[in-house]
Specification:
By secondary structure, the protein is mainly alpha-helical. The protein is 55% helix and 3% strand. It is built from 23 helices and three strands. It is an enzyme of class 2 (transferase).
């Protein structure tokens, strides 16, 4: 089996027994420039397949046709011959195979794939709902940074801005006295989108007096993320079954479960990043379908794309990605890294598409007609959405620093209108806070250990003696309750090895999917090294890794997908791969069942907590 084209799936269907291989398929899947210099790929002299330079093949002037290549001996892609090749497929069909891969083209055509695509999605989404909604209101206490974001979200909905609270407000708030906030704006250091989402959950869940309502938005987002990951992975890997596997792994992972059951901002950042990635995957497919259709139209009319290719129109999914990335930045500033990485990713996909379609000057063509519009679609959209997410701050004169420009004439960015000048000053202060945050914290962790969850964050822990609190009086030992933001240890350990395997497989097979699954980890993990020793001493935590958890899952699934594809047609080898995949899934689910009580604040014997939390760094 030869290495696939950079933008084709790894393998195709084997030909039926006794059927000679199609030269056209071989050319389309292996070497786009395989035909001899003097032939069009089927033995026909090239001059017969190409109409005169001034005509489109039917005597009409050719609008998109280009002059002959500067080097007459340069090879022409195999599909620039006739409308149909030896096996009767059209130019567009052959282009789609090259640009999307035969697996992706066939995926929605088979009833079995459609059934598993939706049935499997529903099953793992229901599993995610069960693990996230069960006793969601326990513990009925503000755990970890819920102390900030729940109260900020509540006052944001009540007043239009985050308000200050009296000293030690949590006991009263937890008891249902939620109106003790002060009539004074609070200094907060994160944008408002995530807090608005927490407020929406409180409104839908019955109000701020309910811990279930505090966390409802996070739970819904966690369930939705599992649903989205199944659908994204299905398209990414051209496999309904492996899409379900990806969703299952996210449904049972501890990081995903804990963040779905606590009202922190990072869960919402993860959602918008995942939505943006899904939009770009859809955009990639739609753009390649358009490119295949328009290149085929040119070629079938007798023209060529030996210099430049066609435009493919406005990219609505790319615009949607820009909106999602703006909302990600409006949740936490670390969304900016995803704007940069995803922007580069979508441009690289376009470059590869034009090259695979046979466009002669593909790099120049793509930079002009794809890269520049990509920047103008994504970046300004994200900026506008981000600024728009501050609408309530603009609308309320009592918001923090809202009157700064009026109180400081001639200071700041003086050419901006006063509201924007005040917002810029606010952002300067936020920047100073984030770059100067270096206080000691017992659960601070270096990002090097995040990928194996070496030092997880304890959100809540409580030990009670028999007869104390909710611990039964007849209990044989003390009771413990914990909410520990610890990913499934086996899943994350295997994913750490899978990252190395994915890099190697991506290079060996020139597989675009490897770059895609790694992109989120690159954007969500690597930038934090700049804030850690030896470069900085900023206080950072392992729970930040929730934002790239879906990509960790995709990276773990990718080598499984490649192994299944590379053993297709070899029953014994494929059976071994399937057995290994099933065994890995079974053990991961078993580990999740073991840790589930410690992710959800369930009461367990103290010895159970001790036996499960085996590593000292986990405590």
């Amino acid at each position: 089996m030869t290495a696939p084209d950079a933008d084709a799936t790894t393998t195709g269907d084997p030909a039926p027994a006794g059927t000679p291989p199609s030269p056209a398929r071989h050319l389309a899947e292996d070497d786009p420039y395989a035909p001899p210099a003097g032939e069009a790929g089927d033995g026909t002299p090239r001059e017969r397949a190409t109409p005169p330079a001034g005509e489109a093949g039917d005597g009409t002037p050719r609008e998109r046709a280009t002059p002959p290549p500067a080097f007459p001996d340069a090879p022409v892609p195999a599909f620039h011959r006739t409308a149909e090749d030896a096996d009767g497929r059209s130019t567009q069909a052959r282009l789609l195979d090259r640009l999307l891969g035969a697996r992706r083209v066939r995926l929605d055509l088979r009833r079995r794939d459609r059934f598993w695509g939706w049935f499997g999605t529903i099953v793992v989404t229901l599993l995610a709902a069960a693990t996230r909604l069960y006793q969601l209101g326990q513990p009925h206490k503000l755990v970890f940074d819920e102390t900030y974001y729940v109260k900020d979200g509540f006052t944001l909905g009540e007043l239009g801005y985050e308000a200050q609270w009296p000293d030690e407000p949590n006991p009263a708030f937890e008891a249902g006295d939620v109106l003790t906030y002060l009539d004074k704006a609070a200094y907060v250091v994160h944008p408002p989108v995530g807090k608005w989402m927490i407020w929406l959950g409180m409104e839908a869940g019955g109000g701020a007096t309910s811990a279930f309502a505090w966390r409802l938005a996070s739970a819904v987002v966690g369930i939705l993320a599992v649903f989205l990951l199944v659908r994204i992975a299905r398209r990414l890997f051209s496999s309904s079954l492996m899409g379900v596997v990806a969703g299952l792994l996210l449904a049972v992972d501890g990081e995903a479960i804990v963040h779905s059951r606590t009202a922190l901002l990072d869960q919402f950042l993860m959602l918008w990043v995942l939505v943006a990635f899904g939009c770009l995957v859809l955009d990639r497919e739609q753009a390649r379908r358009r490119l295949a259709a328009r290149v085929a139209e040119i070629v079938d009319a007798g023209g060529t794309v030996v210099r430049y290719g066609p435009r493919i129109g406005f990219r609505w999914w790319r615009l949607a990605a820009g909106v999602s990335l703006g909302l990600a930045c409006g949740t936490k500033w670390s969304g900016l890294w995803f704007v940069a990485v995803f922007g580069i990713l979508t441009v690289l996909w376009d470059l590869a598409a034009r090259r695979a379609a046979g466009v002669g000057r593909w790099w120049e063509d793509s930079l002009v007609v794809d890269a520049v519009p990509a920047f103008l679609t994504i970046v300004p959209t994200a900026v506008v959405v981000y600024v728009g997410s501050w609408w309530s701050w603009f609308a309320n004169q009592g918001a923090y620093l809202r009157q700064w420009a009026a109180e400081h004439p001639g200071e700041g960015v003086t050419w901006l209108p006063d509201p924007l000048r005040s917002l810029v000053e606010y952002h300067r202060q936020m920047w100073d806070f984030h770059t100067g945050l270096s206080s000691d914290h017992p659960y601070a962790s270096h990002p090097l250990g995040w990928i194996v969850q070496w030092r997880p964050t304890s959100f809540f822990w409580e030990k009670e003696s028999p007869g104390q609190g909710t611990c039964p009086a007849d209990a044989a030992e003390a009771c413990a309750r914990a909410v520990t933001s610890l990913g499934n240890p086996l899943l994350w350990l295997l994913a750490a090895f899978a990252i190395v395997a994915t890099i190697w497989l991506g290079i060996r097979f020139r597989d675009w999917r490897a770059v895609a699954v790694l992109s989120g980890t690159v954007a969500g993990w690597l930038p934090w090294f700049a804030y850690a020793a030896p470069f900085s001493d900023r206080t950072i935590f392992t729970f930040y890794s929730i934002v790239f958890t879906p990509f960790v899952v995709l990276t773990l699934v990718y080598p499984m997908v490649v192994a299944l594809e590379r053993t297709e047609g070899n029953r014994a080898a494929r059976a071994r791969v399937v057995a290994v995949v099933v065994a890995v899934l079974v053990v991961i689910v078993a580990v999740s069942a073991l840790f589930y009580p410690l992710w959800t604040g369930m009461q367990v014997p103290y010895s159970y907590w001790q036996n499960v939390m085996r590593l000292e760094s986990w405590i």
